[in-house]
Amino acid sequence: MIKTFAIASVASMSAVAAMAGGYTAPVVEAAPVAPVVVPVYPTGWDGAYIGANINWGKSKVEAKGDLADALGKKISEPDGTNGALRAGYDWQSGNGVYGLGAEYNFGKYKDSLTGNYAALSDGDVKIDKAGTLFARAGYAFNDNWLAYGLLGYTWADAKYDDGASQKKGVDGVTYGLGAEYKFNQNWSSYLEYAYTDLGSFDTSIGKAEADLQQIKLGVNYRF
Questions:
Q1: Dist. CA 188–CA 205, nearest whole Å
Q2: Is residue 219 scored above 60 in pLDDT?
Q3: Three state DSSP letters for 123-142
Q4: pTM here?
Q5: How would residue 23 be classed by pLDDT, with cut points 50, 70 and 90?
Q6: How distant is the alpha carbon of residue 111 from its chain centre?
Q7: pLDDT over threshold 80, residue 54
Q8: pLDDT of residue 167
Q9: pLDDT for position 214
Q10: Cα Rg, the chain, nearest whole Å
Q11: Run of H or E including 207
Q12: How buried is residue 81: exposed, middle or buried, by Cβ count under 10 Å (0-12/13-18/19+)?
């Protein structure tokens, strides 16, 4: 009887072991992970670009010599907000960036005569059709930020309009400072300050001189 009980126990244990070995746990598959797309930014500032800016400008038109002695120095201070188109090409060497460009301002800066000159006439003084050829050099802190200085040549029309328009061509040297930020491979924005000495010119009543200061906020499309 003991022998029979032992055989039955062994058989029972074998059955349990068989049942345990026969159980397979379910396989849980991990959810698929979407690949992370990393935007690719440009590695330099080389290349051509076109752009536009909105600018605020203020000019000073002042008398010189005998005219200033007779009627005072301040003639007018034309100002206003205008738009401009720009194009250029940059080269990069290490952190240095160098470029050539051109800009045309299609607006005008305008003001009436002031002081003793207003008593002579109620006309307006305008500075318009300003164009600039420039060279710039800067430092690229990384692929996105560029600080630069600018040196250029600017020409414009100085106009006096009291019903009979008088126009003089003026020109001079432009100095500027700016910073440009590149959003992606093609688009960048910039903030720039420029000062232009437009030199002296003759008017119907004497000699005058003018300058122009501009603050520009613009965007460029880079190829």
A1: 47
A2: yes
A3: CEEEEEEEEEEEEEEEEECC
A4: 0.78
A5: low
A6: 28
A7: yes
A8: 87
A9: 98
A10: 37
A11: strand 206-222
A12: exposed
Phi, psi of 68 (to 5 degrees): -65, -40
Residue 22: strand pairing partners:
none
The pLDDT score that the predictor gives to residue 60 is 95
Contacts 24+ apart (CB under 8 A), 185-188: 185/40, 185/41, 185/42, 185/222, 186/221, 186/222, 186/223, 187/219, 187/220, 187/221, 187/222, 188/49, 188/219, 188/220, 188/222
Question: Quick one: tokens of 13?
Answer: 């244990």
- The burial of 209, by beta-carbon neighbours within 10 Å (0-12 exposed, 13-18 middle, 19 or more buried), is given as buried
Of residues 191, 196, 189, the one with CA closest to residue 213: 196
For the chain, what's the residue count?
Answer: 223
- Whole-angstrom distance, CA of residue 59 vs CA of residue 79: 6
Query: Which token pair is 211?
Result: 């300058």
- Three-state secondary structure call for residue 119: helix
Picking from 115, 107, 108, 113, the residue whose alpha carbon sits closest to that of residue 125 is: 113
